[in-house]
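Here is one chain, start to finish.
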Amino acid sequence: MPIKYNITKYDVLVGEIHKLVQKCNTHHAYRLDAKSDAEASDLTEKELQLKAIAVIIASFSSGHSWQTHKCLQNEEQFNKAEIKQEYLEAEESRWKSVTLNDIEELAETSVSDSTFYRWLFYNVDKSRQQVYKNAWSMLKAEFDSSCDEIEQSKN
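Its structure:
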């Protein structure tokens, strides 16, 4: 009898992020900042967007960025050194350890566009903001889509 798994769209997203992590670990560290555009050129546009999505998730989840998560909950300002540092750490390495729980937590946290753009303004270099705006749109579409499960069987 085949074994059946219920895989959610968030499981698929985590799987895609982990595949990108493997690719990045086998080559060298990729960053979304202007200093590393030559390194980042090895990534496709889709992979750059996926990394930006993972950075956003790591930046907003309580398990990776507690100060930022608290600001999301309390509608506080994002122009604090601690929040900038959490973003830099998320962009450097924390994105690589995004889990299903992090994605589900962000999906259940109602982050408005204006809140996201305030965070973006204070923390992300202006030259990289468009990448994150596009990633935010893709992530929100993922959260809003109704298709919830993909069935996979293993014989």
